[in-house]
Amino acid sequence: MAAPVLCGRTAVLCRTLRGISSSNPCGLLLQTASYNPRPLRLNLSDPYIPDKESDETPAWQKTARYDGKLYGRYGSASGVDPASLWPSHEQLDRVVAEEREWQPTLEEMLRNIELKEKEEAEKRQAKERLIAANMAKMPKMVADWRREKRETKQKLKEDKARREQLLEEARVRFGYALDPRSPKFLEMVAEVEKEEKKKKKLMKRRLKDEQTAAPVTTPADVS
């Protein structure tokens, strides 16, 4: 469907261009070629020179930049001394400083490139050393991770077994199953933990007494 529409539009355009060329074959071309802009007419005999002493003169017409425009437009008729248009020593120093900052010499550019490449090489070497050190630590890190994972799994298994044991003990003591969140069960757990701490303390004291009471053998007794 798009092809017939495109062909139709092309035919209409061709007929339009054919009609324009038959009526005025070179009219459009001649109109374009005959365009000649009017030259800028300067009144050199009586140029406009602003009065810098007058208060009615705008401030921007009293600047050295405007004097440069006047001299460039009217030349000596502007009454501007060309020597006054040259920059002062302070301005030249400022221009030189700006050129040194924003337009460095070839030697400075090469030195800056060398310093930048050296800095990038040092960063790359530091990164490579860090990667090598981390890769050397990788086996130990993997082993520690696996050990922690085993310990966590074992602890969860022990906690689950202890919880089941406490629930069974509570069922035997009270004759029915208790909710692990009930105050009665939590109170029983606190009592069991207290008894276990007391047993561990007694066991530790007994081992200490046994080590103290054990006879110390000297080399003379052995001989």
Overview features:
mainly alpha
Question: Could you describe the 3D structure shown?
Answer:
It is a single chain. The chain is mostly helical and 223 residues long. The protein contains 7 helices and no strands. The N and C termini lie far apart (120 Å). The relative contact order is 0.02. The model has no long low-confidence stretch (mean pLDDT 80).
Taking all Cα atoms into account, the compactness measure Rg is: 51 Å
Give the amount of beta strand, in percent: under 5%
Overall morphology: elongated
Low-confidence stretches: none
Oligomer: single chain
| Main sheet attributes: strand count, strand direction, barrel closure | none
Helix content: over 70%
On the 0 to 100 scale, the average pLDDT is 80
Would you list the SSEs in sequence order as H and E?
HHHHHHH
Q: Which structural class best describes the helix and strand composition?
A: mainly alpha
Count of runs of 4 or more consecutive helical residues: 7
Count every beta strand, where a strand is a DSSP E run of 2 or more residues. 0
Q: What is the first-to-last residue Cα distance?
A: 120 Å
Reconstruct the topology from this structure.
Blueprint: H1 2-23, H2 27-33, H3 64-74, H4 89-102, H5 106-174, H6 183-213, H7 219-222
